[in-house]
Write a structure and sequence with these properties.
By secondary structure, this protein is an alpha+beta fold. It has 10 helices and 13 strands. Strands 7-6-3-4-5-11 form a 6-stranded mixed sheet, with helices on one face. It has a 5-stranded antiparallel sheet with strand order 8-9-2-1-10, sandwiched between helices. It has a two-stranded antiparallel sheet with strand order 12-13. A hairpin with a 2-residue loop joins strand 1 (about 5-10) and strand 2. Helix 1 (about 20-30) crosses helix 2 (about 35-50) and helix 9 runs antiparallel to helix 10. It starts with a strand and ends with a helix.
């Protein structure tokens, strides 16, 4: 089962996650190429790790807005362990670079944007320029420059030749403000010895085993919480109906004339079908709501 674990040891905190199943779900829903699977999987995993320190009902949107052939890569996540995401051009594939998927070339240059939704006031947003497009490096840079949080981020997605996701996961490790140079040096040494995180997951390591490897030599590890993870979208037929109600009268009339409408969710690919009779009912609801607002306006 996909899971995210939070832990501390000494002057260090770490969040680690295995995300193979949810990345599989997301890439299948969008019919992703191997390149798009790697980009989307890393972004969704990164979003979940960054959402780990959010409070209840808070959420985060992580988006890579590059000029590469993949287009935008976006993920929404909350601290309940739910994530959704999409790649603007999931069919794109590029030649390998040194035997590895060319995620950086697929993303291109542009901006990394992070928006936090707290439920109180306006959302809080920050951004930095994309450095490499490899996702993990850019999140490390974002956390340092935009949130003043020194971090080491590792993300990985291993894709088979049949486009199935073999393994996916990642971690974020951060020295606490009181950490000294020795702590940082040991972290750098440990991380330098690690296998790629996707290989660790393929080898059967769970979040706790990954944490233990990163924090080797840091003394007793305190495992704080474990959260089950899943690909889950907030879309629904009811929300889609509300969207159709909000359309301009001329647009609703055009849909009725067509006799059918299909609405596809960008984030999960779910398709909602509406017959002519459905659209007439929606149009009538919209008209009644408009009449009610008009009467309230006159008062």
């Amino acid at each position: 089962m996909d899971q995210l674990v939070k832990a501390t040891a000494g002057d260090v905190r770490i969040y680690a996650a295995v995300t193979t199943d949810l990345v599989t779900e997301g890439t299948k829903r969008h019919n992703c190429s191997a390149l798009a699977s790697a980009a989307l999987g890393r972004t969704m995993t990164g979003a979940l790790l960054m959402a780990a320190n959010l409070k209840n009902q808070e959420a985060i949107t992580l988006s890579f807005n590059g000029n590469g052939p993949l287009g935008r890569v976006v993920a929404d996540a909350n601290n309940n362990g739910f994530v959704r995401g999409y790649v603007q051009h999931p069919e794109v594939e590029l030649p390998l670079t040194n035997g590895k998927l060319s995620v950086g070339q697929g993303i291109g240059s542009g901006l990394v944007n992070v928006t936090r939704f707290t439920g109180i006031g306006d959302p809080q947003s920050g951004s930095v320029e994309i450095l490499s497009g490899e996702i993990a490096e850019d999140l490390t840079r974002y956390l340092f420059y935009s949130e003043q949080t020194p971090s080491a981020v590792s993300l990985g997605v291993l894709v088979d030749t049949d486009l199935s996701v073999i393994a996916a996961g990642g971690f974020i490790v951060q020295p606490l403000p009181e950490a000294g140079d020795d702590t940082i040096a040991r972290l750098e040494e440990n991380i330098g010895k690690l296998k790629p995180v996707s290989q660790m997951v393929k080898d059967g390591m769970g979040p706790k085993e990954i944490i233990a490897a990163v924090l080797d030599g840091f003394g007793e590890i305190e495992y704080l919480t474990a959260t089950d993870l899943a690909f889950k979208c907030q879309c629904s037929r009811v929300r889609t109906e509300d969207m159709l109600v909000a359309l301009a009268p001329a647009d609703r009339k055009s849909l009725i004339a067509d006799g059918h409408a299909e609405v596809c969710c960008t984030f999960c690919g779910e398709k909602y079908q509406f017959s002519k009779e459905d659209l007439i009912i929606i149009d009538n609801v919209a008209k009644k709501l408009a009449e009610m607002r008009a009467k309230e306006g006159k008062k």
